[in-house]
Amino acid sequence: MKKSAIISKVFCLSLLLTFLFLPSSFGNVCTGSQLHINPSLVTQLDLRQCNIRNLQESDFKLYTNLQRVDLSHNLLEEIDFSVFKFNTILEHLDISHNRLHIINCSSLQFIKDIKQLNMPYNNFETMDLCKEFGYLTKLEHLGLSSKRIERNDFANIALHELKSVFLALEELQEYEPGSLRLLNTEKIHIILPKIIHISIFLLYDAFKSTITLEISQIQCIPCPVGQMAFITKNSNISTLILSNFTMPWSAMSRFLEGFWKSSVKRLFIYGYTVIGDFEYEPIDVSKGSIESLHIENVMSLVFEFYEHPLPIFSEMFVGNLTLSNADLTYFVCPKLPSIFQFLNFANNGITDGIFQQCRSLLVLQYLNLHNNRLERLLSLSSMTSTMDSLLHLDVSFNSLYYDHNVRCEWSESLVFLNLSRNKLTDSVFKCLPNNVEILDLSRNQIKSISKDIKLLRALKEIYLALNQLSNIPDCRHISKNLRVLNIDNNVIFSPSGDFFQSCRNVKTVSAINNKFVCNCEMRAFVSAIQAFKGEMLGWPSSYNCELPEEFRGIILNDFHLSEVSCNVYLLIGIVVGSVLIVVFSIVFTCKYFDVPWYLRMIFQWLRGKYRVRQVNVAEIHKSKHFHAFVSYSQKDSDWVRNFLMPNLEKDDSSIRICLHERDFIPGKAIVENIICCIEKSFKSIFVLSPNFLQSEWCHYELYFAQHSLFGKNSDNLILILLEPIPQYLIPDKYSRLKALMKERTYMEWPMEKAKQGLFWANLRGAIQIDLPVPEGELFEEETELHNHRESDGHNL
To answer: Under a CB-based contact definition with an 8 Å cutoff, are residues 462 and 483 in contact?
Structure first.
């Protein structure tokens, strides 16, 4: 063995030991695409193109669970199947595209459970299958190739009931007629040899050896058209597949005519290249065995023709006809009532003119016009109006639109309509068949569901994926028969939870990959889904928040907002309740501890302190001798003597009070004394009570104090409310007192002893100021004024 071959084999097998793969993945070991796993877990090995020249038992010994091995496209020249003796469950072995010319037949016993053995494209001179092939009792699929085929080559597998046999016979040079008849198989796939007369004998035997025959790579110029009757005579074929072949249309038409009168029921043609001619030639396709004709991927190399051969297909008496990817731009309406039940014209260039006013498709049930050039939905509906049996219509992947108000006439029998991948908008709901049960409008430009959908009385399934819907349709306008709703990949932001209430009959809903906004409305939608008794496809993994940004990517089922943040009434109730509780607490606290009184006292104290600072001290030293002049009723004199005076006039003489009974100058008029005392006092204190209202002199004193020169620029009045005085008890002549009590803050005498300390502190603070000490007493005795006021029952 050459050194390079040894190195190549070592390299490939070293990769085999390093890169392995699971059953779900099938890559190439030589490219290093496998995973590192335990060899006993490996079920498949891909050893293609590894330049392997020989195999050894140790190569596969560790892979006890190996089921599939691909050794194709290597350099094997001989093979001994004993290398697989430890792979007892091996089912699939591909050794095609090697250089094999020898098989160790005695070693076939080591792969006795093989189901698929693929050996074509090697260097076998003959297809002689030795008797040991009889051991392969489970064999189902067999692939072979050789240069000669003799009658007894398949004798040793004649008893095997195979499912398929693949014969790559491009290089076949000799064939003994009758050899293929020994094969017992459901399907034979033959790649025909280049020698035409050998192909004829092969086909003759193949048509009698199986029920399904596939013939590939037919290139005949000229073709043995005259031999078709000989080939198909007394054939057993029911399914015939022609793939990858090239011939003139004239030959093809004759082949079709020959197949039409054979046992073939299903004819499939894939990859037909037209050469030479492409003209219409009448053939008899009115009666025959063919029930289904499928032609796909037609390419014409003929660009000039007098009459297109297309009419021949409309003349065929066949139930199912497929012309896919055949470059059709139209199809001829059959002249006579047709037996077409299935027509598939997908992937062509058909336009709106097809089947207009065509009244011969009376039994047509399935029509597929996928991926064509249809544009007008109105023309499409008119086309179907004459098809009395049409059940299924696929016009997806076209350019359909509807912008009319004209009533659309559809076939009344239509129950399935696929309008996906078109240019339809909301107006499409004005032009839909009333009896449709399954409607596909995916990949259009629909933004909302028109109320015209209520005309679809029989609708059971509707597909609206990949549109521009911003909300879930309201089932109140949709048929009660609706069972399936698909609205995947739209722009639905805030779906309403009421949907599930209005769509109680729906069994399956899919709203995957929408742009959900996670807000309070979403809570109701999620709750409705959780209570939904039907099937919510993709829930919950495929339903995520898109907005706001902080919730993006969160699964709707995991999104939560508090009840308070979403229930306005509850929020208002909590706020109002909290405010009421706070207010009630404050009121109760103030009432219980009499806080307002303390606040007023503090305010008055601060106010007095502020005003004292504003007084010109120099002026006070010149004109003021008393801190306060006290005006009160004689009936309140006990309170003045027992409470007021002791708490204001201390032993330190820091505060001097002016009392009429002590400080009036005898001999002066009463009014003059009042004015003099007020002017020489820094403040005037008025002790208010109901008794105060009964004294005329108190009123005069109040008047003079308010209009004193000092009072023009400063607040020199201090009102002490000894007892409550309701406003209605104040006589009208005391309007000035009423005004003062409304405009000025007065001090209330507290009955509780705990409050009286603050009361006196505030009062002292209001009148506290540094005054010059008088040189002598201003008033030395009581005058007759005192006696006069005593007689009046009032003390100034």
So the answer is: no
Report the pLDDT averaged over residues 520-542.
82
Q: What is the mean pLDDT of residues 312-327?
A: 91
Strand partners, 215: 190, 242
**Gap between the terminal Cα atoms of the chain:** 145
Whether the model pTM is above 0.70: no
- Range from 7-16, 735-744, 756-765 that averages highest in pLDDT: 756-765
Cβ-based neighbours of 5, under 8 Å, separated by 6 or more: 51, 53, 75
Nearest 10 degrees: Cα torsion 37, 39, 43, 44:
80
Q: Are strands 681-688 and 626-631 parallel, antiparallel or unpaired?
A: parallel
Average model confidence (pLDDT) across the chain: 81
Mean pLDDT of 221-247: 78
The residue ranges of DSSP E strands in 578-649, in sequence order, are: 626-631
**Counts for the chain of helices (H) and strands (E), in that order:** 20, 32
Cβ burial 139-176 (10 Å sphere, 16+ → b, else e): bbbbbbbbebbeeebbbbbeebebebbbbbbeebeebe
Packing angle, helices 696-706 and 784-792, rounded to 10: 120
Overall average pLDDT of the 722-733 stretch: 75
Residue spans per domain, the chain:
233-327, 595-792
Q: Which regions of 192-319 does DSSP assign to beta strands (E)?
A: 212-216, 239-248, 266-275, 292-300
Question: Around 231, how many Cα atoms within 13 Å sit in the side-chain half-sphere?
Answer: 26
Measured in whole angstroms, how far is the alpha carbon of residue 308 from the centre of its chain?
A: 51
Per-residue pLDDT tens over the stretch 284-319: 887 778 999 999 999 888 776 656 678 888 888 899
* CATH of span 595-792: 3.40.50.10140
**Residue appearing with tokens 């003994």:** 176
